[in-house]
Design brief:
Elements: H1 3-24, E1 38-43, H2 66-74, E2 79-84, H3 86-89, H4 99-114, E3 118-123, E4 128-129, E5 132-133, H5 141-154, E6 161-164, H6 174-191, E7 197-200, H7 219-222, E8 233-240, H8 257-271, E9 276-282, H9 287-298, E10 306-314, H10 334-342
Parallel strand pairs: 1-2, 1-10, 2-3, 3-6, 6-7, 7-8, 8-9, 9-10
Antiparallel strand pairs: 4-5
Helix pairs in contact: 5-6, 9-10
Amino acid sequence: MTLIATRLAGRAVVLLWGLVAGLAAPLAAASCDQDVALKGVNLAGAEFNGGRLPGVLHKDYVYPNNATFDYFASIGANVIRLPFRWERIQPSLSGELDPAELRNLEMTVAMARERRMCVILDVHNYGTYRGNAIGTTEVSVQAFIDLWTRLAGRFSDTSDVAFGLMNEPFKLPIEQWASTAQKTVNAIRKQGAKNLILVSGARWSGVHEWEKSFSGTSNANVLADFRDPLKRTWIEVHQYADPHYSGTGKTCVPAANFTKMFDNITRWAKTNDQRLFLGEFGTPSSQACLDALDAMLAQMKDGRVWRGWTYWAAGSWWGTYPLSVEPKNGQDAPQTGVLKKYF
């Protein structure tokens, strides 16, 4: 075969494969809509440097890249939780969404879609906007609802995107957060969006304190009756393994500590017909911490209640962060070996 003929034949094969891929593409769906557990990681970076707003992309904050998506898809992840800042996507309360940030979100969703992964859009603001809590005169509940109805209008593909209303809304009283979340879910559904929704517990969303009373009430009390007319809302909880359960310590409590706390919240979910998602959890890489990590993952075996998890965290800017599972120099983080058992 001549060189020209060889090149022509090669191009024909490429074109044929392109045609086949194009025909197959509509059949490939991300996992948000499938009846499977969502298991993956937080790809952090877009929420970084909240003190510099809006900040400069690639200097103050960063979005995930293709290489990161490739790696986590290759080890079995089917979902990523994408933390980002409310102030960046909506620079003015109740105003238009920022076109550049909207493109960043859309490109991230597109990268996930190519790998058949679900994206949880996580507003990572702790219940505030520019430091002011939702429900104050500075930040009305309606302003928060406005954000989500705008986002829901732009990310309506239920197979690609799930909505994480607010990360760890500790700035709001527990009852106020439950009421705000319920009104927001109602508004999203009234608009016609059918995406999966995740509603965080109040405070730090901790499994360990789910039934603990603060100012006369608890997450267990106020979220027992939470309802979605489409029954597509899960309750998001978080749990870390250091002695303060904060995600900041370098040591971990005994693995056996997690049995009772996870049994209790699983029982609560069954009693109140709720579904749970562990949106954040993570440990350093010592053997005691790896045992704790394994213990937490092992507690979520009841698929009727536990619908999945996203480890905290991965992302290209973590450096020496002890909980990071971003690979370094082609090597898996020690925690990744535990995660692989459960993907």
